[in-house]
Amino acid sequence: MYRGRLVILSCAELMDYWRKGLRNGNWYHLGIMDRIFYRAATWYAKIRSMIMNNRIIAQLRSIAEKLKVAIKGKVMNAGLARVKEMVVKFEENGVFEWAPQVRNWMKDPKYIFWVGLSL
Questions:
Q1: Looking at CB atoms within 10 Å, which of 16, 24, 93, 112 has the fewest?
Q2: Residues 33-79: pLDDT tens digits?
Q3: What would the 3-class secondary structure string for 39-54 be?
Q4: Are 39 and 96 found together in one domain?
Q5: 64 and 82: one domain?
């Protein structure tokens, strides 16, 4: 939450990220120090109702980003990276000239997801 130039992080926001991380399993992939730091910051935010230190907020935001990432996003990112490599290779080898429908496949989100799963 932003208040003018002051950035704050509430206990409710931290708890939402924590729940999301527990549900998708990312909480258990965090390092022990990140988990300890996050729990301590949550406890502090519960007592004081908010965290206002920008350095601490930056660290908590990076942990929260790790907690938010869902498996679908990871698969899509992997598939997108692989599709970009394939487009370069296919253009070099002229595949799009004799199979133009392949270019449409490369834009289809379902195909990108499938490529990400097959890695």
A1: 93
A2: 999 999 999 999 999 988 988 899 999 999 999 998 888 888 999 99
A3: HHHHHHHHHHCEECCH
A4: no
A5: no
